[in-house]
Amino acid sequence: MITDNELMLMVKSGDIDRLGLIFERHNKPLYGYFLNLTGKTDISEDLVQNVFMRILKYRTNYRGDGNFNIWIYRIAHNVFVDFIKRKKKLEFSDNLNEWDNVLTDTSHEEESSKNEKINILESALMKLPQKKREILTLSRYKELKYKEISRILGCSESAVKVRIFRAMEELKNIYNELSKN
Amino acid sequence: MDKKKKIKLITEYLFNNTRGTDKRKMREFLLEHGVAEEELSEFEKLARELNAIPEREPGEKMKINFYNNLEEYKNTISEREARMLSFKNIWEELWQPVLVKRLAYAVAIFVFGCLAGYWYTSEMKYKTQVNTMFSEMQDMQKVMMLTLIQQPSPTDRLKAISISNQISNADDKVIDALLNTLNNDPNVNVRLMAVETLYNFADNPKVRIGLIKSITKQESPIVQVTLADVMVLLQEKSSVDELKKLLERNNLNESVESKLKNSIELLI
Amino acid sequence: MKTITLILSVVIYSMIIPGKAIAGDEDKLKLSFSNPEEPGLLIIEMINGNIDIQGYDGKEVLLESLPPKGESHEHKIPEPVLPDTEEGDEEISKEGLKKIKSSSFEINITEEGNKIKIKPGLTNINQNFNIKVPYACSFKISTVTGNISVKNVKGELEMSTVNGKIDLDKITGSSVASSVNGIIKVVFKKVTADAPMAFSTVNGHIDVTLPAITKATLKMKTDRGDIYTDFDIDVEEKKEKSHKEDKPGQTETSWIKWTTADINGGGPEFAFKSLNGDIHIRKGQ
Hints:
The complex is a heterotrimer. By secondary structure, chain A is mostly helical. Chain A is 71% helix and 0% strand. Chain A has helices at 4-12, 19-38, 41-57, 68-89, 102-107, 116-127, 130-140, 146-153, 157-180. By secondary structure, chain B is mainly alpha-helical. Among the domains of chain B are: 3-52, no CATH class; 152-268, Leucine-rich Repeat Variant (Alpha Horseshoe). In chain B, helix 7 (123-148) crosses helix 8, helix 8 (154-166) runs parallel beside helix 10 and helix 9 runs parallel beside helix 11 (205-214). The N and C termini of chain B lie far apart (59 Å). The chains are: A mainly alpha, B mainly alpha, C mainly beta. Chains in contact: A-B, B-C. The interface between A and B is large, with 42 and 42 residues.
């Protein structure tokens, strides 16, 4: 199988259509990443597009010697950070928590109570501060190694571990709080 | 064990992220080193539940938008390239159908010349030249295909489609030309043969999407029917919506209608 | 570039004299290609009218318009005058006059780059054409319900109809033809080497006669029809069943891709495709 790195090098050399295969391989996890961060399906879809457009824009800078997952999630992370900045500038809302419950409200109403736990957990996730939510998402998706996460977020590996722990602690508290109601 | 180290170990334990770590041993170690069992179990449960959250699938629209954006991008860079390479037009002029045959001879003679040149040049030089020639010969078919497919005569366009069946590594220019023909060629038979040929390239996700998107663009009953056939052959379930949309048209040919219904049945 | 737009007014009014045949000399239009030494292309876009084309020994295209389908050359018995007719003045019959649908007849003809394009105006969609063309001439003809008949020409013939019949006889060259409900019948005198061809219908039969020595790769497919040929061929049928198992009780559906066969060692692809029609491929002389 052609590796992502090889594909990306082809894209770099002008074989733009190879990006299609990269898209096929990564669009779903990326979508999941953004959906966990924003809670909005349409925004998540747009952000996935932004990631791929950014890949095209910077394709000539691609060196092909690193870990492709780190590279693409770094782009995704930057796309998200830019999105938040823009959002704040426009003063739409700087409170991400306003977006919550989208998942639980719409897509899941019809499902039975056995999914209630998941619903509560998703609501709890949405109530987490953005940075904590992101790190949990990254650790959950794509089975990224801590080392890779540290490179994506630009911090040390031990900081990643501590942050994940703190995020888990907070999630646990919110979750327990929500479960009571 | 300091708190920070404990935290790190717990996290590693929870997501089992480090390779080759024996989970059970780690748990024992943590419990021995003052981590409360209750706390650990609670974390474990939470981690399990986190992993159990189903992944949501993006809508089909996202894929379609992506490929549209990709097309757009390609157009913008090809425009840029066109501006940069003005001689490209002259190059294309050379590929008028009448000249294609003559040029084929020319390339053949050129290759022969290169082989003869072997005796006069160093081996290194020879190798690069032959390699270049070889890829040029391969590109030749593509260039011929891309030229013929734009000719006003339907016979020429059918020729182009025949050639593309022989191209082993059809690149995206070839695929794009075929998809464009499928959607825009004025001749029904040319579109029909484009479907049949694209079917051969259906491993390419772009081709699949192109074929699905084309379903509702077709006015010709025979092309509609052929696309439905191809969807069944490919078991392309995501085409069902498009087939249903087509079925809703009120000017639909009766034979096409029964065929579409049959195809949808075979897909769902 | 040479462009002529002709509006033939009152052409049909020339028939008001009782007894005079409608297809008089006045109807014959002489059209010339800008470069008569080279084979030209004749483009016709029709809706209902029939087109009858014959090759002849000349340099010009002779266009003759005939009355709409179902109306004879002889004058009709006048219909009773209905003063309150809602159809308008045109529908009012007059003693001694031939009843016609429109008072004038419009046809757009353009010539550009050795291509003549003929397109009747909207008021004359039922007009039929009888055309004589130089032997060497290519065609691009489309109709909706009109029949197309072409005889004795040499060139590339691109034909398409919805309900009309396509009948090509004594053809030298190649053809790409499609119809939805009509039949396609082609008899080749000689085929162009290396020219691929394609014929398709939904409900009509396809009947093509090729010279016995034709080198070609035949690709044939019909869902509910049969395929017949008297060419000596090894049939290699590619059957592909849908990946999905047929449900019990459901009629068995086998999805045949193409029946492929080489004649005389193989050559350019000739594709024949129908949904309900039969395919006949005959060996000519």
